[in-house]
Amino acid sequence: MTALTDMADLTLEDGIAVITIDNPPVNALSQGVRQGIKDGVEKCLADNAVKAIVLICAGRTFIAGADITEFGGAPKEPGLHETLDRMENADKPIVAAIHGTALGGGLETALCCHFRVCDSGARFGLPEVNLGLLPGAGGTQRLPRVVGAEKALQMMTSGVQIGAEEALATGLVEQIVDTDLRSGAVAFAHEVVASGQPLQRIRDRDDKLQSARGNPGLFDEFRKSIARKTRGFLAPEYNIRCIEAAVNLPFDEGIAVEQKLFMELMSGPQSRAQQYFFFAERQAAKIPDVPRDTPERPINKVGVIGAGTMGGGISMNMANVGIPVIIIETQQEALDRGLGIIRKNYENTAKKGRISADDVETRCGLITGSLDMQDLADCDLVIEAVYESLDLKKEIFTKLDGIVKAGAILASNTSALDINQIAAVTARPESVIGLHFFSPANVMKLLEIVRGDHTAKDVIKTSMSFAKRINKVAALVGVCPGFVGNRILFQRQAQAQQLIMEGALPHQVDKVLVDFGLPMGAFQMSDLAGLDIGWNKQASNGATIRDMLCEADRRGQKTGAGYYDYDENRTPSPSALVEKIILEFSAKDGIDRRVVSDQEILERCIYPMINEGAKILEEGIAIRASDIDVVWVYGYGWPLYRGGPMHYADSIGLDQIVATLRKYAEATGDATFEPAPLMVKLAEAGQGFSSL
Ligand code: 3HC
């Protein structure tokens, strides 16, 4: 064995050279890997004893892409293009032996080999779009030449991976090896040498592009089909343009288009934000005082209290990954309704072809119901998901503590209440934690995990791992009203209310927020959630706009009217009645209404959120600024291409945020605009939240 670099080595057996990449954890294409491949190939080409080359990786995966940590730094030789050209133009066969995931630059490397074999678990994808990029090492031109333009469009605009069987069917791999991958790949290389077949360079092919050439409407139709999902993102469109170039231009001209668009994306703010978020998400899983090797409690059976919208959605998460769940209700009718809705949800998913009819039965079979809390006795984790009443939750936790086995974790799905007070009614406060799911709980990726004063480290570790197991992204937060997500949301909602009192109307505020990239505006969100959450009919006396609307039975989407009027498809339109109510309220408060600019709306809705985020950091409620961003991207649909509120603040400059907040503090006299000391300190030092 010869070491090529500290990340690659070379062995020669019976005429077949094997270059092995070893750059844990994911064999990213760091400088040492590129150098190793290039040197290894050159050595083999110069050695008459070498008849063919196998490129394989050690560890858990084939190359998972370019080394993202190198992005933004000075280029290090050799470049990826240079390395891959050396491979593709080699006059000896190169066989990629793929296991794990061949992603991004990793798949591009494989596409520059002359042949590809894989094991049955291998997966393939070009996920650059998720980093606000496009494949920049020829992948945009080569993948469509192998799998066709349609498939390439799907894969490159969504980052979706395909498995080994599909890779074989599309011709992306020549063979699935069902024995040891290395020996299978070496045997394949021997066959290639023996057959004397010519070396295939993907760049020279264009048979798979023919059907797209005959279908000029393909690209525009595809654009339309993904428009809603990709609103605001640049990268999907740039990926499409590259595939259009692959179809319509000679290979080298296509590569030139790829390079130009890649550089444009790489130097833009969207990709910066998306790369930042890639690491933010992974960072959120790391808890400084809870070491990786903290033991975990086994979770084999889960109980959920409440079969309402949240309880049902939460239960589906467990059933989706094969964990049995028991749902507790107080009334048979409510239980039946809840279980019925779960079944209907699964059946609808099956109708869309996302799961099979068998999956529906398996998952529904994992969810049972009961009216007796004693049936929770053998659960490892119980998640309470009843409505937001501290007294009710305390009552439930007192009972649970007496029923559920020792060592089991008791969790509350509260979105704002004090976990410490809930934990205090039990004899096991160390086993009590907040697991705050976001609605719809079976869809939204975020799990806000709330650590109480006495929550044990193994309970935190177990909850973080459990989140991953049920395909959620967890962010650990501390106790305060609304935790991280809703506490920040309250600020925005309060400003939105204030803005309509001063002169804006709900649809104007909402349009600004939606144009910014949020999935819905402040008032659309209120209408969706229901204006009567926390509203008391008996006590209501028209003191707020919300009271007036609820009193008029405009309680949101569910009653067909709220801040907006809704048609039978739930399409909102501005309401003349609501406008009248708002104008009357302004007049009653003696407010002289004025034209409020879109810029003011944006700044007054978003900057107080950032300010609240800074206070949350000061108080230690969130561990890092990037955790706040994870909460807002995954819990509230903050546009990923803006990285999250704290990254967005850094991208604008904290000095500017502080100055603008002070301007509004002075103009409105509202103390919530006073910038948090932490933010002032950072701004004065010319730093951002990322420096913390
Ligand atoms: N570069 C640098 N580090 C990477 C990396 C990459 N491409 N991919 C993963 N890592 C790091 C992660 O940050 C993490 O580090 P940490 O342990 O310090 O937090 C570690 O590797 C393990 O990653 P995950 O926690 O994500 O491990 P999983 O097993 O859950 O997932 C994976 C593995 C599917 C490979 C996932 O890491 C992934 O999707 N990686 C990114 C793949 C990608 O986007 N590739 C394209 C890169 S851009 C490119 O190739 C440009 C080219 O076209 C020129």
Which distinct ligands sit in these coordinates? 3-hydroxybutanoyl-coenzyme A
What do the pLDDT scores average to?
96
Number of helices: 28
Would you tell me the structural class of the helices and strands?
alpha/beta
The strand count comes to 20
CATH topology of the largest domain: 2-enoyl-CoA Hydratase, Chain A, domain 1
CATH class of the largest domain, anyone? Alpha Beta
Can you identify the CATH superfamily of the largest domain? 2-enoyl-CoA Hydratase, Chain A, domain 1
Radius of gyration: 28 Å
What is the CATH architecture term of the largest domain? Alpha-Beta Complex
Largest sheet: 8 strands, mixed
Portion of residues within helices: 40-55%
Strand order within the widest beta sheet: 13-12-11-14-15-16-17-18
Q: Which percent range describes the beta-strand content?
A: 5-15%
InterPro entries: 3-OHacyl-CoA_DH_NAD-bd, 3HC_DH_C, 6-PGluconate_DH-like_C_sf, ClpP/crotonase-like_dom_sf, Enoyl-CoA_hyd/isom_CS, Enoyl-CoA_hydra/iso, NAD(P)-bd_dom_sf
Subunit structure: Monomer.
Organism: Candidatus Litorirhabdus singularis
Subcellular location: Peroxisome
Helices, strands, pairings?
Layout (H helix, E strand, L loop, with lengths): L1 E4 L2 E6 L2 E6 L9 H16 L5 E6 L22 H9 L5 E5 L2 E3 L1 H7 L3 E4 L4 E3 L13 H9 L1 H10 L3 E2 H7 L4 E2 L4 H15 L14 H4 L4 H9 L8 H14 L2 H16 L2 H15 L18 E4 L3 H12 L4 E4 L3 H20 L5 H10 E4 L10 E4 L5 H14 L5 E4 L6 H6 L7 E6 L8 E5 L6 H13 L3 E5 L7 H18 L3 H11 L5 H8 L15 H7 L12 E3 L5 E3 L1 H13 L9 H21 L6 H12 L8 H8 L1 H15 L8 H8 L8
Parallel strand pairs: 3-4, 4-5, 5-7, 6-8, 7-10, 11-12, 11-14, 12-13, 14-15, 15-16, 17-18
Antiparallel strand pairs: 1-2, 2-3, 8-9, 16-17, 19-20
The structure holds 3-hydroxybutanoyl-coenzyme A.
InterPro entries: 3-OHacyl-CoA_DH_NAD-bd, 3HC_DH_C, 6-PGluconate_DH-like_C_sf, ClpP/crotonase-like_dom_sf, Enoyl-CoA_hyd/isom_CS, Enoyl-CoA_hydra/iso, NAD(P)-bd_dom_sf
Subcellular location: Peroxisome
Subunit structure: Monomer.
